[in-house]
Design goal:
The chain is mainly α. 58% of the residues lie in helices and 0% in strands. The relative contact order is 0.14.
Length: 226
């Protein structure tokens, strides 16, 4: 899907980071799953966070220099109304200054940190869901691509995309090796005969021009000054 906005939790990359955070927090909490985003029992999750799980996870991410882990852990905790230790709030304020993010997302968190009561009351960041973005596209509130067609996605800047967690590469390698072994076993069991090369795919000139304009716009967006 990509990204449907520049606010907090408005992209697949951010949701992937939340998944990684939940994976790491579950290990620290010694449980199979620790859902932070839209949990079935938010009061129970909040109780465990307040009981020390949040602080342990925050320190672990800080030790691993995973800024996005700290940031989105705080975001999730605030949406649940968790009580965040003062030293962690002080650290996240500094971390936020050092971490490249879209100004919309950073502004949301800065506003949240300034207004968060830290007394059990959840904070609403007022981010758009993908459903909000889809509804906006119907009313032409979403941006238009350089080729002139309506977009649901927004263009993402690589340097602003959140980075994966401390074990992200290790997990990725494990998955890749697993799939490779499965493919090799399947090919050994049922080898496919060689097939003739497929004909080259071509596009009408008008579509090529639109695609070229979109690629140029994307490249210029990536190279624009921070």
């Amino acid at each position: 899907m990509g990204a449907w906005g520049y606010g907090l939790l408005e992209s697949d990359a951010e949701l992937d980071v939340v998944d990684e955070i939940e994976y790491e927090v579950a290990k620290l909490a010694k449980t199979k799953r620790f859902r932070l985003l839209h949990p079935k029992h938010p009061a129970r999750v909040k109780e465990r966070l307040d009981g020390g799980v949040f602080h342990r996870a925050f320190l672990y991410f800080h030790e691993k220099k995973w800024n996005h882990g700290m940031i989105y852990l705080v975001v999730m905790a605030m949406t649940l109304g968790s009580t965040i230790p003062a030293e962690d709030l002080a650290q996240i304020t500094q971390t936020l200054k050092e971490t490249p993010m879209y100004k919309e997302a950073k502004g949301q968190l800065e506003l949240g940190l300034a207004g968060y009561k830290n007394n059990g009351e959840p904070w609403d960041f007022q981010s758009k869901s993908i459903v909000d973005a889809a509804n906006a596209s119907i009313t032409n509130e979403q941006p238009t691509a350089p080729g002139g067609f309506q977009m649901l996605n927004v263009m993402e800047k690589w340097s602003y995309m959140p980075q994966g967690g401390p074990n992200d590469m290790e997990k990725g390698m494990e998955e890749m090796l697993k799939h490779q072994k499965e493919r090799e076993a399947k090919q050994a069991k049922d080898p496919k005969p060689a097939t003739e090369p497929k004909p080259k795919f071509d596009l009408p000139q008008e579509q090529k021009d639109r695609l070229e304009a979109a690629v140029k716009a994307w490249f210029n967006f990536q190279m624009a000054p921070e």
